[in-house]
């Protein structure tokens, strides 16, 4: 089997530096003569993406289930393109992916509650089952103080301390689940300097720059993870 491109996802809390680091990794790959491209979710340029953009800017209101499904549909719009790009030998760096959709939706709580979930975790996970699975996910973990110190914090719907705390808790669960299924999930301390974070990301990703021998896996498709994850959360 000829080598394919690597699928590298950069996830994290709001204002953790995802976009900055994704762009830096793209430049470093290109400097190393690796064919690579950068994609970002949500893709706010598509018809679905424009609806999501208006929601995130609090310019419109949508049912919580409806917006979750729109986020998933936005990813499915590019699923076949992602697979074709990887098979062509080109590496993809993705700024946010299905893990963000799951973390933000499953962290929502019922009105008047501080902990009772509004949406079921497994229900939130289901629409993305079958999407291309990343070869590596880098989770940029940033403290609330560091995030608040960065420009633009609080401009969008989810940029509140209580929300970000719950989102982080779900990301931890997702990371456990990814690793239980045999995937790679690396936690990066995003409170460090931009240069330090960039170097940590490169160290984690550099073994993939020559391509990947394995076939493209499907997200949430490893049956082994079911028993492992149930054991983690029983």
Automatic annotation (TrEMBL):
<dbReference type="GO" id="GO:0006233">
    <property type="term" value="P:dTDP biosynthetic process"/>
</dbReference>
<comment type="pathway">
    <text>Pyrimidine metabolism; dTTP biosynthesis.</text>
</comment>
<dbReference type="GO" id="GO:0006235">
    <property type="term" value="P:dTTP biosynthetic process"/>
</dbReference>
<dbReference type="GO" id="GO:0005634">
    <property type="term" value="C:nucleus"/>
</dbReference>
<dbReference type="Pfam" id="PF02223">
    <property type="entry name" value="Thymidylate_kin"/>
</dbReference>
<keyword id="KW-0545">Nucleotide biosynthesis</keyword>
<dbReference type="InterPro" id="IPR027417">
    <property type="entry name" value="P-loop_NTPase"/>
</dbReference>
<dbReference type="GO" id="GO:0004798">
    <property type="term" value="F:dTMP kinase activity"/>
</dbReference>
<dbReference type="InterPro" id="IPR039430">
    <property type="entry name" value="Thymidylate_kin-like_dom"/>
</dbReference>
<dbReference type="GO" id="GO:0006227">
    <property type="term" value="P:dUDP biosynthetic process"/>
</dbReference>
<keyword id="KW-0808">Transferase</keyword>
<comment type="similarity">
    <text>Belongs to the thymidylate kinase family.</text>
</comment>
<dbReference type="InterPro" id="IPR018094">
    <property type="entry name" value="Thymidylate_kinase"/>
</dbReference>
<dbReference type="InterPro" id="IPR018095">
    <property type="entry name" value="Thymidylate_kin_CS"/>
</dbReference>
<keyword id="KW-0067">ATP-binding</keyword>
<feature type="domain" description="Thymidylate kinase-like">
    <location>
        <begin position="10"/>
        <end position="200"/>
    </location>
</feature>
<keyword id="KW-0547">Nucleotide-binding</keyword>
<protein>
    <recommendedName>
        <fullName>Thymidylate kinase</fullName>
        <ecNumber>2.7.4.9</ecNumber>
    </recommendedName>
</protein>
<dbReference type="GO" id="GO:0005829">
    <property type="term" value="C:cytosol"/>
</dbReference>
<dbReference type="GO" id="GO:0005524">
    <property type="term" value="F:ATP binding"/>
</dbReference>
<dbReference type="GO" id="GO:0004550">
    <property type="term" value="F:nucleoside diphosphate kinase activity"/>
</dbReference>
<keyword id="KW-0418">Kinase</keyword>
């Amino acid at each position: 089997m000829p080598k394919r491109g690597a699928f590298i996802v950069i996830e994290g809390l709001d204002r953790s530096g995802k976009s900055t680091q994704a762009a830096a990794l793209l430049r470093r790959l290109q400097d190393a003569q690796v064919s690579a491209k950068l994609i970002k979710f949500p893709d706010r340029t598509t018809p679905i993406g424009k609806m999501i953009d208006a929601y995130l800017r609090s310019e419109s209101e949508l049912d919580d289930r409806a917006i979750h499904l729109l986020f998933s549909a936005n990813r499915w719009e590019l699923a076949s393109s992602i697979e074709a790009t990887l098979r062509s030998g080109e590496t993809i760096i993705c700024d946010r992916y299905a893990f963000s959709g799951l973390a933000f939706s499953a962290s929502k709580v019922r009105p008047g509650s501080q902990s009772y979930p509004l949406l079921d975790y497994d229900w939130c996970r289901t629409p993305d089952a079958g999407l291309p699975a990343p070869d590596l996910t880098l989770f940029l973990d940033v403290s609330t103080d560091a995030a608040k110190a960065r420009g633009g914090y609080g401009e969008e719907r989810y940029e509140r301390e209580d929300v970000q705390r719950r989102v982080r808790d779900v990301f931890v669960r997702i990371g456990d689940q990814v690793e239980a299924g045999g995937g790679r999930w690396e936690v990066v301390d995003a409170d460090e300097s931009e240069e330090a974070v960039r170097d940590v990301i490169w160290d984690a990703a550099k073994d993939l720059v020559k391509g990947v021998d394995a076939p493209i896996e499907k997200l949430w498709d490893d049956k082994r993870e079911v028993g492992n994850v149930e054991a983690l959360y029983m």
